[in-house]
Amino acid sequence: MMSTFKDEVLSRRTFAIISHPDAGKTTLTEKLLLFGGAIRDAGTVKGKKTGKYATSDWMEIEKQRGISVTSSVMQFEYNKAKINILDTPGHQDFSEDTYRTLTAVDSAVMIIDSAKGIEDQTLKLFKVCRMRGIPIFTFINKLDRQGKMPLELLAELEEVMGIESYPMNWPIGMGKEFLGIYDRFNNRIEQFRVDEEDRFLELNDEGEINGDHSLKQSGLYEQTLEEIMLLNEAGNEFSRDRIASGDLTPVFFGSALTNFGVQTFLESYLQFAPTPQPRESTIGEINPLTEDFSGFIFKIQANMNPAHRDRIAFLRICSGKFERGMSVNIPRLGKQVKLAQSTQFMADDRSTVNEAVSGDIIGIYDPGTYQIGDTLTSDKNGFQFERLPQFTPELFVRVTAKNVMKQKHFHKGIQQLVQEGAIQLFKTVKTDEYLLGAVGQLQFEVFEHRMKNEYNTEVLMERLGSKIARWVEGEEHYDNLSSSRSLLVKDRYEHQVFLFENEFALRWFQDKNPDVPLYNPMDQQ
Ligand code: G4P
């Protein structure tokens, strides 16, 4: 039977994995793709450690780093669900794109290393998910190693992240004594390192093993039953609605490396993860089941082929069906474009896509037309999706043109890259110097590279290090409060922003000037 448009949309699950480097994102992604049959070998997702790179010709920096477009979006099918995984690069590759990717998903999977607990980058990405009300599914990884106690990890989720949790399963021991997981949700035990046919032990109505079993000899089994009782009595209640609103995170324990607990996780995830969600626009909410096509650009990857200066714009489809060759409006430009060259991403490949529906992510060829945040729609009246959030930069450099004769190119390049969303631009209030702000070092490198390659301008960048940026509300001017420890600058919309040397300088400033209305845009959206 032919599936209808509605069936197609409802089969989509689009998520990003958020984690700190080394928590196991690559390993888990690979296992998921293996289940979906999208790849045959582990080690295909990212060449980081295996030395394998997908063959394509993307930007040099990315080649050196082993990031590729293909690993930015991966699609696979499992039990009739069509799953889109979006990569959120980390470490030195962390950038505003990493945050912006989270605007294009309907849910997030958070991986936590059981020995390390909640780490810095996970927390940053988590905050963006919270700000947007994105449902979060937690996978606590590396149970085959000795880690923190599970109750301690749950407490960390609540205390550090402020999110309530519901453990869907619970580890029986860990490290050398890891015996498996007690699956509360499916009322069964999944045994570690036990053959497939004997791996699952169904439990009785009391949640215990019927009859004799070697597991019962272990003190760990008794201990697990006690902990489960504690969770049943004192833990949070399971609530589908609270998962959907992002207020409760279902927690799964497992070991991605040994492929343990991954399938159980995937199956439960598919049961509770949201289908494509509606998006706010200037004409109200756009329903993903609406047949008129619409979507927005959340990322532009430039210079994948230096010879052609081509770029790919990543489009999240929000309603209707994409068909290759279709014409759409870009309301920002009041212009129609034909989407002739389009790409879909598979695990280690990219191929031309002819059709895609709400929830899918496709790449479209960008001859320099698009900006991050652009709406594309087949609606003649041209609505726009809500503006993408602004992310508070943390790193700053002072930038000048190396060759003073190239000022014109320099200004043009900066202006376009800023508009495109590659980097944020500030000007010092007193001296009119240009500062660039970013959330990760990669953004500066990409900026420098693109200025040279696309605008033929070499730039000098003087590092200013990390700063705490706080915007100022209202129109009153505070030029007299600018100092080296609280530098006043203006953003590209002429809004005043103070750049503080550190937390201490910020607090000191607030104590001295309690009437200056400072705010962090990331706390407000
Ligand atoms: P990332 O993408 O989040 O950065 O993490 P990645 O999957 O690359 O995993 C980081 C390291 O953690 C890898 O080890 C990986 O093998 C290991 N790892 C991932 N999941 C598990 C798990 O469930 N149990 C254990 N014990 N280890 C796990 P590495 O030594 O850095 O790399 P490799 O040489 O093993 O590839």
Automatic annotation (TrEMBL):
Superkingdom of the source species: Bacteria
CDD domains, alphabetized: RF3, RF3_III
Binding locations of GTP: 19-26, 87-91, 141-144
Major site of localization recorded for this protein: cytoplasm
Transmembrane region(s): none
Compartments, as annotated in UniProt: Cytoplasm
PANTHER family referenced in this protein's UniProt entry, alphabetically: PEPTIDE CHAIN RELEASE FACTOR RF3 (PTHR43556)
Keywords assigned by UniProt, alphabetized: Cytoplasm, GTP-binding, Nucleotide-binding, Protein biosynthesis
A matching Pfam family: RF3_C
PROSITE patterns, A to Z: G_TR_1, G_TR_2
Family designation: Belongs to the TRAFAC class translation factor GTPase superfamily. Classic translation factor GTPase family. PrfC subfamily.
Functional summary from the UniProt entry: Increases the formation of ribosomal termination complexes and stimulates activities of RF-1 and RF-2. It binds guanine nucleotides and has strong preference for UGA stop codons. It may interact directly with the ribosome. The stimulation of RF-1 and RF-2 is significantly reduced by GTP and GDP, but not by GMP.
Keyword GTP-binding: yes
Domain Tr-type G per the UniProt entry, residue ranges: 10-277
The protein, known as: Peptide chain release factor 3
Keyword Nucleotidyltransferase: no
